[in-house]
Design a protein that fits this description.
globular
């Protein structure tokens, strides 16, 4: 009735996204994800500044394991909002997944990775570390980003042959991990206190 009315299109895209089950390779399930992406792209054609649509697209591509397209959309978000620490966080998570999927749990696969591929992975690790560090600068209490920064440092250590340098990196990882756990505990305690106070008021 009114093709210029953006809200119904946005809700339809959200419905497609809600029907998608991450991890399932069933064709009808993949179709839901693709329908969600294309419908969110329609939203952006009508409202180019819709950050929510861009976030959804980045998330859907990540769930589809299309890391390049997910990062591409994260960068689009950052081009419109350079202070979007969540987009930086998402880039860090993707780069961790890229490295971990290749290196293995303890780094047992590193020796079998071709040199050119190792170079690509190392570059992704560096990109992810910088993205997470920038994200934490914007939000110092961002313990979720710190958890992944810890993990990316450990990925960096897997590709470091010099033992002294490797130990330095692992020490940085330990330091970040401890800080992340402390911040997470503080956030949970604050939330628990808030819930108790609300109940008292009731």
């Amino acid at each position: 009735m009114d093709p210029t009315f953006v809200e119904p299109i946005s809700y339809m895209a959200t419905c497609y996204a809600a029907m998608y089950v991450p991890g399932s390779v069933d064709p009808s399930n993949i179709k839901n994800a693709k329908n969600a992406i294309s419908t969110f792209e329609t939203v952006l054609q009508k409202n180019p500044g819709n950050a929510n649509a861009m976030v959804y697209i980045a998330q859907l591509y990540y769930q589809l394991k299309d890391y390049d397209k997910s990062k591409e959309w994260c960068r689009k978000i950052l081009s419109k909002d350079p202070s979007n620490y969540e987009a930086l966080y998402r880039i860090g998570v993707i780069d961790y997944d890229i490295s971990y999927d290749a290196s293995g749990i303890t780094g047992e696969n590193v020796k079998d990775i071709p040199i050119n591929k190792q170079t690509e992975i190392k570059s992704a690790i560096e990109e992810g570390i910088k993205a997470l560090e920038d994200s934490i600068k914007m939000k110092p209490s961002y313990f979720e980003a710190m958890h992944y920064l810890n993990l990316l440092y450990r990925e960096q250590a897997k590709f470091t042959m010099d033992e002294t340098e490797k130990n330095k990196i692992l020490l940085k990882a330990d330091t970040v991990a401890i800080k992340a756990m402390d911040l997470e505990k503080a956030a949970k305690a604050a939330q628990d206190t808030r819930v108790l106070n609300i109940k008292k008021e009731e």
